Amino acid sequence: MNQQILINDDIHYNETRQCLIFTAMVSGMLVSCVIATSLTKEQALTHFKAHQFDYEMQAEQRIEDEAYSAQGEIELVQL
What three-state secondary structure class fits 5? Predict the structure, then answer.
């Protein structure tokens, strides 16, 4: 586990973008981690809770790889 990356427990569903978003603190900066999904809000949140550890590991790896989108976000692959 990278001590410079702290995953926040602030998952929410963005209706407009149809995605799940949580944040990570990376060396003092807040970074949004985004998971695009076709699931409903309730299904998406339930899915995230079942796979939270995997999504957090994916986010950490992508942050370490500096795989930021043009918007400065980390885009994750839905499991």
Answer: strand
